[in-house]
Amino acid sequence: MTPKTFSQFLADPFRQSFYVLHPSIVKSDYVPLDLSVTNKALNVIDVSSSEILADFINNHIKTNSAKVAFGGYLETRNIYNRSNYFNAANPETQRNIHLGIDLWIAAETPVYTPLSAVVHSFKNNTNHGDYGPTIILKHTIDSIEFYTLYGHLSIESIQDLKVGQQFKQGEQIATLGAVNVNGDYPPHLHFQIVKDMQGYIGDYPGVCSKVDLEFYSMNCPDPEFLLGLMV
Fold this sequence. Notes:
Layout: H1 6-11, E1 30-32, H2 50-63, E2 68-71, E3 97-98, E4 101-104, E5 110-112, E6 117-125, E7 132-141, E8 144-151, H3 156-159, E9 166-167, E10 172-175, E11 188-194, E12 207-208, H4 213-219, H5 224-227
Parallel strand pairs: 1-2
Antiparallel strand pairs: 2-4, 3-12, 4-11, 5-10, 6-7, 6-9, 7-8, 8-11
C-alpha cells in the first residue's frame, strides 16, 4: 500500500512495525516502564542520581525477564527538576513532559534507522540533562518529509557523520552513549518523530511545558505508531 499522507502512513494498521534496536530483540523482550510523577514507586527513588535511577530501571528489566524497558511518550516526569536547563519559575512553563519514547538498554547498544533516510543534522548537546550526541534523520514517503531524532548516543556516533549522508532502512546509524556523555542519564535511546523541524539543527525539544503541549503533541506524534511495541 502506498500512503497518501504521513498521518495515513502512521495510522495504517496493516503495515509492518519498524525497529531502532536490533530485530533479534523481539517484542516480548520489551517491558513498559513508568517514570511519570504518578508512579509512587519513584517517591523513594532519587531520580536526580543517574546511578540510583539506573539501578531502579535495571531491576525493573531483570524482574520482568526483559532486555529493554520502554515508554515515556507525553509522560510528565520529575527527573528534569535536577537541571536548570528545564526549570522555570512558573510551573506552567516548566518543561517536564516527554515528547519521545525512551528505550533503556546498555551503552554501546547499536541503533538502526527504521526507514531509509538522509542525515539532516547532528550535534553534541552538552547541557546537563540534555541529549548529548544527537542525530536527526530526514525521511521521505510519497513526497511527504518528516524526521526522526536519536538522542543520548555515543561520541563515536557523530565523529565521522556527514550531513546528507544516506542510510538504508535497517542500517546501523549509531551506538548508545554512557552516562558521562549522554547528558547524565542511565544509558538509553530517546527516539522522537518530528514533522516540522522549525529550523533546528542537530537538536529539537524533547521535553515541553504544559502550555506548549498541544503544539508539540501534534508536531511530534507518538513513536509507538512506528515501533508497534504494545501490539
